[in-house]
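Progress report, Aim 2. The chain analyzed during this reporting quarter is listed below.
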Amino acid sequence: MYLNGVCPSDLKVVARSSAGAGEGVACKSAWEAFGFPQYCCSGGYSNPATCTPSPYFRLFKNACPRAYSYAFDDATSTFTCSSADYLITFCPSTTSQKSTGQNPDATGRQHSSDDGGGPMLILGDDFSGAVPAVARAAALAVTSLATIALRGHCEPPYP
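Predicted structure tokens for the chain:
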């Protein structure tokens, strides 16, 4: 299932073209959209008894039935992140190489000590015909969601 097509308007990330037309490019989490602690299972909602699925749960669960759709979705979910050190590459350049090593990096570049060891985003120069602004907006929205999920805790939503 393609989430952008069924994403409710209050969670939709819209990229505007120069002509002013808007296109849905991503779907936010309820936490990122509203910032309420019950959507993040934090504070008084930090245990399975008080943190229950949001009204948006079914949308994400229908799209990815075995993926976690909220913090305590253990009964039907089958995978988790093994660490918080991931590299996410959107639209890699045509000179990118795959790595089969322990820490794959599609760009082949070595991580420096100032990387901080956290998730990284690399945008290539080949957007394969996509409108660059739309591709960048989608990449940033997905990265925001991935960062929230990988950190294992919540931060205030971005303005």
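DSSP finds four helices and four strands in the chain. The helical segments are 3-6, 30-34, 57-63, 132-151. These observations will guide the mutagenesis work planned for the next reporting period.
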